[in-house]
Amino acid sequence: MKQLMTHKFKKNALTMAITLVAASSIFVVAAYNSSQMGPGPDKGKPSQSASAPSAVKPSNKAAQPVTLLSQVAVQPTISASYQAEVTGYGETKSRFELTYTSEVSGRVEWLADAFESGRVVKKGELLAKLDNTNYQQAVSQAKSSVATAEQALLEEQREGEQAKSEWERSGLSGKPSSPLVLREPQLASAEAALDSAQKDLAKAKRDLSFTEIRAPFDGVIVSRNVQLGSYVNVGGEVAMLYSTDRIEIEIPLSEKQWANLPKIDSANTNDAQKWSATIKATGSEANDGQQWSAYVERTHQYVTQDTRQRSLVLVVEQPLQQDAPLYPGTFVEATIEGITIDYIWELPSSARSQQGEIWTVNSEGLLQKSAANTVFERQNKIYVMPTEDATAVQVVKRPLSNFKAGMKVMPLVEEL
Predict the structure, then answer these.
(1) pLDDT tens per residue, the chain (416 residues)?
(2) What is the layout of strands, in order, in the sheet containing 219-224?
(3) Residue 256 belongs to domain spanning
(4) Helix or strand or coil: residue 173?
């Protein structure tokens, strides 16, 4: 037991000795570091030899790092002449969009195989037939009335001639006291009766012809509203048809766009036909590379109240016979050739900032900005009025939101 106590005492003494040695080492290191630091404010003045190293320190602090200038891509730009293009949007529509209604009433007794939605039909093609029994009877009655009226007119003409002959044989001079003597009123009545009977016959024949429903023009059947055996009243809807001879597109334009189009004589709007245009489908209907040639057929001589814009109308002839058919109801983008404009800049669309500004770099490398007066746009390029009078100007191709006028930058030239 005594030996165990002695062993523990020795172990604790050894631990305390190690702790004292470690604490002494820390104190020595701290004292050494303090001796290496410069003299405090209450120390004596440094010697001449000690001040030599301190004289070098100010020169080291004065050597500041060189500031790197922001690099911006610029395009050398000069004024030139470019042909304007006017771009607008619209929907293709058939020249005629007809809700075909029946002129007569009757039951549908026959339908043509081509009388189905989506089918293309020719002008005059028979689409359906109505029961025409009553109309044939009306024609027969009208013919009988005409024959009776013709007979009555012939008899009256003969009686009139006889009355005139008797008056001449009577030896009386002058004219009869009454036109009834020469049967003139009776003759006029017979002539009117014949004219009325002939018109009744013409109407009966026309009504009979309307029992045959025919296509009024070359077109496509959009919908058929009658069935075999159904009864159609006068004015009842039979079908919806779109003409196929040409497609028309109404394109509303702003005043600036109108200014870029060729000038026309307002008294002779046929000059608009000289304008050519190219159209292509947009949105989900777009087909890469597919275009159609069109021309301006007419211009509206009024401003639409809703949009406060004036429109022109483009035409595509025989749209369904194109290499790629152009269907009614297609949303399209139209590009119309305009006038040639002098002294404008051609820039990438990215050169116009979100705030609608153009940034340039002057000869001193300083940024400058001005409002972008865009004349027209074409194929990811913008054409703007020059913002400076210099012959060649460095325009920033991709301005950043943190640009500030007067900022020093390093321009890097990139061609368009």
Answers:
(1) 444 344 444 444 445 544 544 445 444 434 444 444 344 444 444 444 433 444 444 444 455 555 577 889 999 999 999 999 899 999 999 999 999 999 999 999 999 999 999 999 999 999 999 999 999 999 999 999 999 999 999 998 998 888 888 877 877 777 777 888 778 888 899 999 999 999 999 999 999 999 999 999 999 999 999 999 999 999 999 999 999 999 999 999 999 899 998 876 555 555 555 688 999 998 766 666 789 999 999 999 899 888 889 999 999 999 999 989 999 999 999 999 889 999 999 999 999 999 999 999 998 999 999 999 999 988 889 999 998 877 789 999 999 988 999 999 999 988 65
(2) 97-101, 237-243, 219-224, 120-121
(3) 86-94+245-340
(4) coil
Phi, psi of 19 (to 5 degrees): -65, -40
Residues 308 and 270 in one domain: yes
Strand 310-317 relative to strand 367-371, pairing: unpaired
Of 340, 364, 391, the residue at which a domain comes to its end is: 340
**CA 369, CA 406: separation in Å to the nearest integer?**
9
Q: Which residue has the tokens 């631990």?
A: 15
Q: How far apart are CA 320 and CA 322, in angstroms?
A: 6
Domain boundary at 317, 340, 363, which? 340
- 359, part of any domain: yes
Domains of the chain: total: 4
Q: Quick one: which H or E segment has residue 409?
A: strand 409-413
Q: Are 271 and 312 in contact (CB under 8 A)?
A: no
CA-nearest of 77, 84, 70, 68 to 397 is 77
CATH number at residue 223: 2.40.50.100
Is residue 268 situated within a structural domain? yes
Report if residue 9 sits inside a domain. Answer: no
* Domain match, 285 and 172 both: no
Tracing tokens 């009966």 back to the chain, one arrives at 204
Whether 11 is covered by a domain: the verdict is no
Q: Helices 184-210 and 133-169: crossing angle, nearest 10°?
A: 170
